[in-house]
Amino acid sequence: MSSGAVPAAAVEGSGLWARVFAALYDPLLWWGERSGMADRRRDLLGRARGRTVELGSGTGLNLRYYPDGLDELTLTEPEAAMRTRLARRLGRGSDRARVVDASAERLPFADQTVDTVVSTLVLCTVADPDPVLREIERVLRSRGQLLFLEHVRAESPRLARWQDRLAGPWRRFAEGCHCNRATLELIRGRGLELAEVREASWRRMPPIVRPLIMGVATKAVSD
Q1: Do the Cβ atoms of 133 and 188 come closer than 8 Å?
Q2: Cα–Cα separations (whole angstroms), residue 196 to 116, 146, 188, 218
Q3: 104-136: b or e for each residue (b if 16 or more CB lie within 10 Å)?
């Protein structure tokens, strides 16, 4: 269409697949979680402190790994089907966390009011990581931290070529996920200092999403 409008059938189809994908999400990740991913979540999220905001919380797989005693835990999720499952996992009447309908590109928090931002398998999925990283910088206090766990572009040239070949079909299947995104380089290019980075492999998952990075980036002290 010349106006750039999306046909109604395409919108309905996208909404249907979003609901199906949300229903399949936990089963699809089950083997990967049991083969090491759950331990990585536990290790990473145990470092959360103060006022904590999680980006793209999905169905809430991280929820059980947050430490007690956080000042506040906010779970953001823009996709309605995922948000429904997230609220269900949290439980009715729970005061452990609150669920907010918000995208990672536009966080509903004032400047420098957050101690910890968490991103697990999110920077691969957003259309453009730059606005997200700018938002992270904006909301973090001085010495605030970004805890990240992301799958990334492979260092192996052969696997990277396969990631490039399959990027389109995978993005359609996995609701926007970019299997060939060089996320670590994007974080390095922002005003965040990498305090720790570890490489790992997401076992029992398709090879194009197996290369992982996890670590901590901190915001510099404001003048």
Answers
A1: no
A2: 15, 11, 12, 10
A3: bbebebeeeebbbbbbbbbbbbbeebeebbebb
The domain spanning residue 36 has which CATH number? 3.40.50.150
Indicate the residue type of 96: R
The average pLDDT across 57-70 equals 97
- Does residue 66 lie in a domain region? yes
Question: 80 lies in which domain range?
Answer: 8-219
The pTM assigned to this predicted structure is 0.91
The residue length of the chain stands at 223
* 78-92, 147-161, 183-197 — most confident range: 147-161
Neighbours of 212 (CB within 10 A): 20
Model confidence over 74-112: pLDDT tens digits? 999 999 999 999 999 998 768 889 999 999 999 999 999
- Count: domains in the chain: 1
The answer to whether residue 1 is domain-embedded is no
SS3 69: coil
Helix residue spans in the chain (DSSP H): 8-32, 38-45, 80-90, 129-139, 157-173, 183-188
Report yes or no on 3 lying in a domain.
Answer: no
